[in-house]
Amino acid sequence: MTRNPAARAALAVLSAATLLAGCARTGTDETDHEVATQKPAALPHGYVEGAEELAEPHPRLVIADGGTGTAHLLDLVSGDLTAVGGGVIGGVGGDGRFAYLSTRNGTATRVIDGGTWTVDHGDHSHYYRAEARDVGALTGADPQRVLGDVGVTVVSFSDGTAKILDRAALEKGDLVETALIDTGGHGAVVPYGEHLLVAGDGPAGKDTGGVDVRTRDGRPADRIRTPCPEPHGAAVTRRGAVIGCADGALLVTVKGGEFTGEKIRYPGKPPKGDRALEFHHRPGSTTLAARAGDAGIWVLDVAARKWRLLKTGPAVAVTATGDDAPVLSLTADGVLHAYDTASGDETATTELLAAPLPRSGAAPVPAIQADRSRAYVSDPAGKAVHEIDYNDDLRRARTFELGFPPAAMVETGR
Predict the structure, then answer these.
(1) What global pTM score does this model have?
(2) pLDDT means per 10 residues in the chain (414 residues)?
(3) What would you report as the CA-atom Rg of the chain, rounded to the nearest whole angstrom?
């Protein structure tokens, strides 16, 4: 019932207008076709065709079976495990919705649509769910890294090349390459600021000394003069894009269409084997973690422009769980460790893996994925995935029994 008099009056006017419009459309006069067609109702904010919008995130894990090579989808809400593809063995990464898994022979990357994703609008986010599927295989030897945004996904390979994929086409189930970029044997290609940041020696092997800014189809657009020697590893944060360099990290920001670079140097000069080669972090966080060879863990606070070396000894896998949240480290003895990023102190440990890692290196290597409240650690020997509440002294919240050794694991829906 409408109790407000003004609302009742407005409703009456609207009803009369609708009735008159209906009468005009049913006439037989020659001018009937000139009556304005009623406009379709506006689509709701955040509408995505073919997807269901959710009230909260719906995380899933895409997991490769180390025995059969089958890709499975683990729904972290229902606990259901389903097969979604085949022919995979290793993990490369994800862009929030799609998982990229290397094939057994290392010559291609299989793309799996996890079917859940988050769209960050800055002051709020939208969460979606759709059908998971195997999108297909992307050719390229030994895939190393995946970085994506709303427009493109960049898949980088060990030979220094990177393929640029159209994100809109991916969402329709098509693998469309918009560009192929060669960094010259090693380097980094990062989607940022509706452009591509390209750091490397260049296709002729000549050290360019800075970072190229290119359009999404690979054309030159700008240049960042701040040097980044021997680029390795990259990440995108809310404070800018980060590219690992021999002397630290290059932070790239953009304002008013102008790109600038700022060097965050290592404290001292670490040995080459102790440099940060790949960054790991929770999406949205400005705190990054990287293995520091046998020395321990590098923690990069992007907001504070500061490195910290946690002298923990060698780690199998590491990740940062967020700003003012612990850094996690998994060691070969199967123990998960938590460290305070400000003090460097160890705050919690838990014996997690079913067995220590073998020294031969033949077995799959465990991985850590983190979201806003939980971390997920793969356990190849235990044929399981452990869910960890990292804000509660590494409490094991759940263990998902898989029935196969997980060789790779990528979280979607974050």
Answers:
(1) 0.87
(2) 40 37 39 41 67 93 95 96 92 92 89 93 88 94 91 94 96 96 89 95 56 94 94 94 97 96 96 96 94 98 97 97 96 97 95 88 87 96 97 98 96 92
(3) 25
DSSP 365-394: PP-EEE-SS-EEEEETTTTEEEEEETTTTT
Distance of CA 120 to the CA centre of its chain: 12
The candidate with the shortest Cα–Cα distance to 211, out of 160, 177, 261, 170, is 261
Q: Which of 50, 70, 71, 48 is nearest to 61 (CA)?
A: 71
What's the number of CA atoms in the CB half-sphere (13 Å) around residue 232? 14
CA 363 vs CA 34, 75, 103, 379, 380: distances in Å: 73, 25, 16, 11, 8
Among residues 385, 333, 386, which one has the least CA distance to residue 357?
333
Q: Is 313 helix (H, G, I), strand (E, B) or coil?
A: coil
What does the alpha-carbon distance between residue 246 and residue 249 come to, in Å, rounded to a whole number?
A: 8
Select from 119, 162, 118, 114 the least CA-distant residue to 134: 114
H or E segment and range at residue 167: helix 167-171
Structure tokens, 356: 């220590």
Distance CA 129, CA 114 (A): 9
H or E element that contains 14 = helix 5-25
